[in-house]
């Protein structure tokens, strides 16, 4: 897969198995991140455009040029049912690359949302549509359509490597990328983790302390923690 030269659109990509994507969609970002071994998180400056936004889908990746949303329109043609567009930029840009018109177009193609290391606008309309978007900025300043980028090449978006077809999960806690080969395994680990958390929740609810639940009293005593009146 070509990566270094701009102006490439890969039209045949391998997507994660839809049943693994469906399984992952049941979990929050924190659970998926822990289940994966604490890797794959995007930087926390990416925020949901509205509070209840959440998404889970397979990545159609885009490498944008600053202040230019041309490649988002090129990407729209590559979207299949269940995809999430993940857009990185060749250098930092907080212009409003995306709004309700593009959201309407993405949705019509089966798109489930957008993650963009750039700005977006029309957030009231995006909320009304419930089209989930995670972005680094909200910015009314628009963009042009003048320079080539690429679609469906591996990108680094907000510090995370994303390959076309990888699974992207996003909610109020952040955005995490699951490599498509690991999707089944991570979904299973996430389910085990949730089951474990449910039993812990029960014990916390009953008043038990983390000090006992996690066996922390011994190590604290060994380090010499003293209780004084
Ligand atoms: O048109 C644009 O360039 C971005 C936008 O506001 C929209 O998609 O609605
Ligand atoms: Mg608009």
From TrEMBL:
Highest taxon listed in the record's lineage: Bacteria
Does this UniProt record's set of keywords contain Magnesium? yes
**Gene3D superfamilies given for it?**
Ribonuclease E inhibitor RraA/RraA-like
Its needed co-factors are:
a divalent metal cation; Mg(2+)
Q: What enzyme class is recorded for this protein?
A: lyase
As recorded in UniProt, its EC number(s) are 4.1.1.112, 4.1.3.17
Per UniProt, where does substrate bind? 99-102, 121
Q: Name one Pfam family in it.
A: RraA-like
Describe the reaction catalysed, as an equation: 4-hydroxy-4-methyl-2-oxoglutarate = 2 pyruvate; oxaloacetate + H(+) = pyruvate + CO2
Keywords on record:
Lyase, Magnesium, Metal-binding
* Residues given in the record as Mg(2+) binding sites: 122
Question: What GO molecular functions are on record for this protein?
Answer: 4-hydroxy-4-methyl-2-oxoglutarate aldolase activity; metal ion binding; oxaloacetate decarboxylase activity
Summarizing the function annotation, the protein's role is: Catalyzes the aldol cleavage of 4-hydroxy-4-methyl-2-oxoglutarate (HMG) into 2 molecules of pyruvate. Also contains a secondary oxaloacetate (OAA) decarboxylase activity due to the common pyruvate enolate transition state formed following C-C bond cleavage in the retro-aldol and decarboxylation reactions.
Family of this protein: Belongs to the class II aldolase/RraA-like family.
- Please give the name of this protein: Putative 4-hydroxy-4-methyl-2-oxoglutarate aldolase
Q: Which organism is it from?
A: Streptomyces katrae
Q: What does the record give as the organism's lineage?
A: Bacteria, Bacillati, Actinomycetota, Actinomycetes, Kitasatosporales
């Amino acid at each position: 897969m070509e990566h270094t030269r701009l102006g490439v659109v890969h039209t045949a990509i391998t997507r994660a198995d839809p049943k693994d994507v469906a399984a992952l969609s049941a979990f929050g970002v924190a659970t998926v991140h822990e289940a994966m071994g604490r890797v794959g998180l995007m930087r926390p400056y990416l925020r949901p455009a509205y509070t209840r936004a959440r998404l889970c889908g397979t990545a159609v990746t885009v490498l944008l040029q600053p202040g230019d949303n041309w490649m988002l329109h090129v990407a729209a043609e590559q979207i299949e049912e269940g995809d999430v567009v993940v857009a990185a930029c060749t250098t930092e840009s907080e212009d409003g690359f995306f709004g309700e018109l593009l959201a309407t177009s993405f949705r019509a193609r089966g798109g489930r949302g957008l993650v963009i290391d750039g700005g977006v606008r029309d957030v009231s309309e995006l909320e009304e549509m419930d089209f989930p978007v995670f972005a680094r900025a909200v910015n009314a300043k628009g963009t042009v359509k003048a320079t080539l980028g690429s679609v469906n090449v591996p990108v680094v978006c907000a510090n995370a490597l994303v390959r076309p077809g990888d699974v992207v999960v996003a909610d109020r806690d952040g955005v995490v990328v699951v490599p498509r080969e690991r999707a089944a395994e991570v979904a299973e680990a996430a389910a085990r983790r949730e089951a474990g958390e449910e039993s812990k929740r029960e014990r916390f609810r009953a008043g038990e302390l983390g000090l006992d639940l996690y066996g922390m009293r011994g190590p604290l005593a060994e380090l010499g923690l003293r209780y004084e009146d």
